[in-house]
Amino acid sequence: MPKGSPELTEARRDEIINACEKLYQTMSFKEITIKEIGNATSFTRTSIYNYFQTKEEIFLALLKREYELWIASLKETMEQVDTMTRDEFASMLARSLEERAQLLKIMSMNHYDMETGSRPEHLKNFKIAYGEAIRTVQTCLHRYFPDMAAEQERNFIYTFFPFMFGIYPYTYVTEKQQTAMEEAGINYVFMSIYEITYNCVKKLLGEEKE
């Protein structure tokens, strides 16, 4: 790690992550290189290696930030809203992910590559954020459904989080993919991030109590 104040270090890390994020809006994971990211920052490509050794580490840091933003949104909701029905909770959770399409995009397309291509300390930092996301959703369940059985809560968490990996590729389908499905005789029904998440959460929560 280069010498300098913690503030400078954090600022440079953020600049690298921001550059990667901007490139990802128009380029694929495979197309983006350390060189491309370096060209989009105010310092040299070689300086990036003082903070990240691979592009996978940069993407993992971006994914970590996306999780942190999602966590902050859920916590803000809990501070502002005391009670929710099952329908209101499903809508809230669906809306929170609809606002974080980039989170869903990164985790669904490149998650395995990012984890295997990152050093242990970077992976640990990411897992801390991932664990906090799980705990935050659990806290939401405790708050809004205090009578939920422990088994139902476990089923919710360990169904919903794996489910999140499939949201983006189902809701963002290219013309090429649509054509292929039509030629294969697959009756694809488009659903938005909100719709597919809302339906899943409603099923996991079960019916409203009278």
Task: Indicate the radius of gyration in whole angstroms.
Answer: 19 Å
Derived structural class: mainly alpha
Q: How many β-strand runs?
A: 0
**Which runs of at least 5 residues are low in confidence (pLDDT < 50)?**
none
**Between the first and last Cα atoms, what is the distance in angstroms?**
59 Å
Highest-level CATH class of the largest domain: Mainly Alpha
Characterization of the model:
It contains eleven helices and no strands. The protein has two domains: 1-51, Arc Repressor Mutant, subunit A (Orthogonal Bundle), CATH 1.10.10; 57-205, Tetracycline Repressor, domain 2 (Orthogonal Bundle), CATH 1.10.357.10. Helix 1 packs across helix 4, helix 4 (55-80) crosses helix 6 (101-116) and helix 5 (86-98) runs antiparallel to helix 11. It has helices spanning 6-24, 34-39, 45-48, 55-80, 86-98, 101-116, 120-144, 150-164, 167-171, 175-183, 193-205. It is globular, with a radius of gyration of 19 Å. The N and C termini lie far apart (59 Å). The chain has 210 residues and is mainly alpha-helical. The mean pLDDT is 93.
